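dumping this here before i forget
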Amino acid sequence: MFTIICCINNKFYIGKDNKLLYHIKDDMDNFKKITTGNVVIMGRNTFESLPNKNPLPNRINIIITSDKNYHINSNENAYIASSIEDAVNLCKSLFTDKKWFVIGGASIYKQFLSLNMVDEMLLTIVDDNTEGDVNVDFFEEPINNW
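structure:
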């Protein structure tokens, strides 16, 4: 089904001030390699944190927002979904030949997990305790126990 891809630290933080907490070249290169040619699903805030608020190139971008009036500049590789269910239906009806990656943010990760739609997580874990303002504390034990 869906794969979560995320970079977290020891305190489960992923971002601060609507930006990623870490910019690790190898991690970014790996993200690009894994997701290129596939579907990336994200919330509106994650989309708006992308460079120039543009869809990621060479991927199908699905942006989830409850704002019925939300739109982006017309782009053939971007779709707006009003809910997780709408995003899932898009994937199942149009993109069965691709892998489906959930790329954030925290609320979107939690919703996919709570609906039992995630069968894989690709996590980059940074051994660091930097504080952020977006946290994915949905794991049951501290990372340093893994």
